[in-house]
């Protein structure tokens, strides 16, 4: 057991037997450690249990020990206006996974989650079906729990602090990784890299080392950095005092780090993020009733500084701008000629062929790998499962803050913007139908903040909740 694993378990136990807020903060902060297996892989049956997933499971178990929270969770799960569509999606997904690999065994070629190197193989049941089904159940459980927490408790301030903490930890982890690489002491990060799958931590593009932080590869780090940067950039006006300054610095740093990952997926996400931030600033400028208007001047100053820096680089450091141009050209416009791109497109084509070969029934969770989450969703869960999940996504974006809650309206906008970025990234690099516990928290928070329970049902969480 490495020392980071020991620290994680100590903090987790603190949250289990002490303050409930510790678990929430740990959940968001642990996202940065995507290459840390907190349980020995051999002891876990070959499964890499990451900190955020373990923390999610503990949050679910602890919450369900409370009878009132269990009743609230069941009510939300059975209500089609709340989480009913998501629960139907889970049921359909599990049923397809139970039967499809057996019904269509040997008649459909797929690239399973565990069989990338072998290429397309005949469909057959495997342990990966069970594993992926468990992952999806965990993600859905996170949606339910965060929905209950944000609907029935005073959760807005906790969510803002947790999101800021997650962003700070992620940016610090990247700075530590950069310092270790620059000093030739990358071995110091080995205690944080205990997963059993391949890590791509020393890859270069045009002579520039790709930034991976403590994640397994550059694309996963770049995407995660962009999600936290988007959320903090939108939430920035909601902070006050030193927290506001910290949020601004962290969001800016994470945007830069996302670019330093040199991930083509992150580059596309950065473009979408820039457009969303510009539209949001214009919305706030034109809306007379918007909350936290004092941040508008700061936003204008920030945009002016960024524009000045960019112009200065173009005028006085043309070699740097040329390098940036070459990097964008390589990672975006020449990407379609790379072996990686061709391989990933083959995954998508094989997944679509599997969906068609089963007449839309699907091949089961984990049976077909893709490079597009929507393709994986369609192929793994079938037409019915995909329709239910897409319906839930539409329902999520349609959530509105209760009347008289202008601050919550701003929070919902920030969460929706972050979720939209995650869907864009998933459309470019999502491999399985499971949307992950991090994105699950966004779904749950949006659903919970979009409801307004009776005042007597809203309370403050305590240690023994």
TrEMBL record:
The chain crosses the membrane at residues 44-65, 85-104, 133-150, 162-189, 218-236, 243-260, 266-282, 294-316, 373-398, 419-446. Signal peptide: none annotated. It comes from the Bacteria. Keywords: Membrane, Transmembrane, Transmembrane helix. This is O-antigen ligase like membrane protein. It comes from Bosea lathyri.
